[in-house]
Amino acid sequence: MIPNGIPTVGLKTRLKAFKRISSNKNVEVEKVAHSNSIAFSGIGNPKSFEELMANANIKILKHFVFTDHHWYKDDDIKRIIDSRKQTHADFIITTEKDAVRMRERFSEFLETEPVISAEIQQDILSGDQQLNELLQHIL
After folding, report:
1. DSSP designation for 61
2. Residues with Cβ < 8 Å from 66, sequence gap 6 or more?
3. What's the N-to-C CA distance of the chain in angstroms?
4. Which residues lie closer than 8 Å to 70 by C-beta, 6 or more apart?
5. What angle do CA 113, 24, 79 make, to 5 degrees?
6. DSSP state for residue 119 in the 8-state scheme
7. pLDDT tens-place string over residues 106-119
8. Less packed terminus of the chain by CB within 10 Å, N or C?
């Protein structure tokens, strides 16, 4: 609890795994670490995504930042592919949230390019009792 009585939960965000979006198969974090990659994201806090990649020793050559909940267009994908080819990046990395938006419309992109999604996990560091009590009250 903080002084004004509002319950808070302390969280730590960490990189859990990578998955090839086209096949949903795991890609070892060690294989992606120390790689040169292109990133793209349409999330509320793109800096946190960049920081997670940096903490995993992934060099992001270019990060295409889109607005939160962005619906991708052909032109967006073309720019990402062109950037990967120009830089000879090893991977194109995005978030799980953005991967969902890719699956239906851009299957060719996902199958022909090395596109992976970063699985991110939130670990509760403090306030789990207050969170459980609040959830029990709601349910």
Report:
1. E
2. 40, 41, 42, 72, 76
3. 21
4. 42, 76, 98, 101
5. 25
6. E
7. 999 999 999 999 99
8. C
Rounded CA gap, 78 and 109, in Å? 9
Across the beta sheet with 59-65, the strand order is 25-27, 10-20, 115-126, 91-95, 36-41, 59-65
pTM for the complete prediction? 0.82
Two tokens at 131?
């969170």
Rounded to an integer, what distance in angstroms lies between the CA atom of residue 15 and that of residue 56?
Answer: 8
Q: Give CA–CA dist 115/77, Å, rounded.
A: 11
**Beta partners for residue 117, in sequence order:** 19, 94
Distance from C-alpha of 34 to C-alpha of 29, rounded to nearest angstrom:
10
CATH class of the domain comprising 10-138:
alpha beta
Cα–Cα nearest to 56, from 118, 122, 125: 118
* Predicted local distance difference test score (pLDDT) of residue 20: 96
DSSP state of 5: S
User: Model confidence at 5, in pLDDT bands (50, 70, 90)?
Assistant: low
